[in-house]
């Protein structure tokens, strides 16, 4: 699962016994060498699906981690991109990949250049459950972070994103279809969540990460209650299930 440059078993054990924030501070230098980083094919699919929804001037990557989502936003935004995360370690890695206030060429290709025509990049350390932004963004996105929020926190998270968007702004994120009941993937996720619940029942501080608590029906209900108008776009390039339905969809929640 990991490259030779990824974390050791001991390092993963120390991370797993830490708080969520501290665990990611520890994992940050090697995070991109783990399977936890969002795959490039998902990032590319979301980028292509986002372009027709624009144009966008400003973008926000919620729970940006090491900056994978910022890389998407700088391809579709024209003026400013902001990444926000509560882990200082993850932000440090993101800053190294995307220097503060560096300008990127239009279209997001090539190295950062002074005076380039693309967006500037900024970083903010904050908890996504209390975002420190006025309604200033045209688009917000997030990759792979929702398992770190308990179901009862989800509405508050969505409300914070809503409050950070301009009227007409869009909150987008990919959502994969659940694995078939009884499949290897199903039991793998079931086992992980069960182990995590046991760990959090027996050990403090808690490490919050669950794979099976972000269900489409509940997500749509919480987005709607937060004030969004929601639609789903199929990400067909990520594949189809045996019944012909997409393996992943792009959730597009608009602040009207």
UniProtKB/TrEMBL annotation:
Signal sequence, start to end: none
Residue ranges of domain Methyltransferase type in the record: 60-173
SUPFAM superfamilies assigned to the protein according to its UniProt record, in alphabetical order: S-adenosyl-L-methionine-dependent methyltransferases (SSF53335)
Keywords linked to the UniProt accession: Methyltransferase, Transferase
Known EC number: 2.1.-.-
Biological process (GO), any one: methylation
Domain of life assignment: Bacteria
Gene Ontology molecular-function annotations: methyltransferase activity
Family annotation (InterPro entries): Methyltransf_11, SAM-dependent_MTases_sf
UniProt cross-references to Pfam families, sorted A to Z: Methyltransf_11 (PF08241)
Protein name: Class I SAM-dependent methyltransferase
Organism this protein belongs to: Streptomyces durocortorensis
Taxonomic lineage: Bacteria, Bacillati, Actinomycetota, Actinomycetes, Kitasatosporales
